[in-house]
């Protein structure tokens, strides 16, 4: 077949161009075909029409899918938001309920204890006791003696503090009254200090206004005026039978206390006996921090608000100033805010599901309400009800924020879809051009050549099929593929260069990130350590101060007793035989001498503990500003004091002596905590080096030398030297690298010197350098600016 085709081809292509025209004119069929081809030429491009049609189709698909995605996304986001709101409000409800439920339990326990003691003291005459605790004032009232509040008397048991009372003129003082106020005094004295950590004040108040309470802030009962209108106070009348016929624990309204300058609410539990209202237990709670935290700790862009069922507003982020102006008595019904009115109306009309907690040994717990999420026109409202004060705690989430988030996500999706669509159209344009337009153009050109009489195409015109066009398309495709590979190779080479460049940038960024992570981890560790050290120092300081302060009095009392015995011996010269034998057995001279020694050793021990506490507080510096001018010698001494356990003599080595060469240094502006950390790292490294050398040789005296001096008018020098094992010269350039250590595996992290170097150089703008010789020791020098060169950035309020 190929042979036959080649013969035909050679016959067609043999004439010249002019001969071909003449030959073509002699064949009417070919003329008719050429004319028909010219008629069928379209002025439009098939590629452009196909591309436009597919672009419109893809655009419709993208628009349709975006609409469906928007509806599904909106439904999913709204569902997730409601679920998160419900979880958040449930957690907040559980956390806030604990505060109020604990007070319910405590007051019930105190009520049971009051009734028990009332029954046990029925036959006792407590009038002498009452007169010892109270004194009548010229204004006709009875008040606790001032020395009982300020702790100046020990006439009744142990020293009592912060208990104060005021009995109004109308108080009936009979056997029942003496009994009532004696029991009340004991309960306040015993329970008040323990409760002061969770409540502001604890007190008992009678229906006529007589009250007794515990307060470490001010002696309210000693200072209140005799004509104070107690009957007008809700914390007095709120628990009476008239206002509380159910005789249950109730909470007062929110009110603003002008003396303490804080919001307050009071919990009241009435105590009745045989149908008579004896007294009321009251606990005041400051709510300033609670309200601030409730407003600040919000869910995303939502805001929190609290109000009672009667409309009294407890907390709202935009109305706190107006609430303070109203002294806490602001009702939502008085506020001209339609949205707020709608929220209040929908919330109060909603019945929350109640779950009854199981009975306990205290009482039946208040009912707990399951939170719900309301779907309002413009907001999602998460509603919970706090037990005790019966407050509504709301989280108001604007739907505009929800819609904005959905539109933002949809906007990104449309952008990505548009970019993808353009990319697909570009790829489609390229494919159509190469696969359709060029073959058709080639066929058109071949037809034009045939029409013009140029048969030097080497095409088989005898066959009425697409083999010739496929051959040309294949050749063109091969050429285009070659060009594509060349472009791809060039792009690949360029991409490799960019990848290498980006890899180097990422390595630099990774190194910076590791340094930042290292500093953050160390800051957290030092912050936690500082808080722990400061807490331990505070807890030790109180009992040590008490012991230290009482040693002087004990010493004086013992001396007085010894003097008294001496006078007894002078006055009673002839003791009985039994007393004389007892004196000889007791050996008073030895007791006198040994007691003085014991007291002296106790004073030395308490002084030692106080020094350690002072060193701990100086080292932590939690009560000072982060950047402060300090005496570096004080920080060094505190660090040395904390390392005494490492410096003392052990079974393995003698004590390590500290040699101080102190110069006259000015106060240096620095970050005290981080600088103390550097000192401790260098001293610990010196101790470890000395101990390692002592394991190899014992013919040297372990010592660490600390030298301080002024290096320049602007800098000071701190030099810490040891006579330990030393560091090899080959490893010295790497000692400040993170995770590099010369210690055995498991004994060092390689972080101490790296962190110290970063603190000195980057945080303080100073220098840290070291030099060492194997077998003789190491020396580290710190050059520190007196005035801190790196000031912290300030932000506008």
Explained architecture:
There is one protein chain. With 797 residues, the protein is of the alpha+beta class. Helix content is 54%, strand content 16%. It has 20 helices and 23 strands. The strands form five sheets. Strands 1, 2, 3, 4, 5, 6, 7, 8 and 9 form a nine-stranded antiparallel sheet that branches. The chain is flat, with a radius of gyration of 46 Å. The termini are far apart.
- Uncertain runs with pLDDT below 50, 5 residues or more? 1-27, 153-160, 356-364, 621-625, 793-797
Number of helices: 20
The N- and C-terminal alpha carbons lie at a distance of 93 Å
Number of strands: 23
SSE inventory with pairings:
Blueprint: H1 2-13, H2 17-25, H3 28-39, H4 46-120, H5 127-133, E1 134-136, E2 142-144, H6 146-150, E3 163-167, H7 175-195, E4 201-205, E5 211-214, H8 220-223, H9 234-237, E6 250-251, E7 255-257, E8 262-273, E9 276-286, H10 288-296, E10 303-308, E11 313-315, H11 320-325, H12 338-349, E12 354-355, E13 368-369, E14 372-375, E15 379-386, E16 391-398, H13 399-452, H14 467-571, H15 577-586, H16 588-620, E17 627-630, H17 632-642, H18 644-647, E18 657-661, E19 668-671, H19 672-696, E20 703-712, E21 715-722, H20 752-763, E22 767-773, E23 777-785
Parallel strand pairs: 18-20
Antiparallel strand pairs: 1-2, 2-3, 3-5, 4-5, 4-9, 6-8, 7-8, 8-9, 10-11, 10-16, 12-13, 14-15, 15-16, 17-19, 20-21, 21-23, 22-23
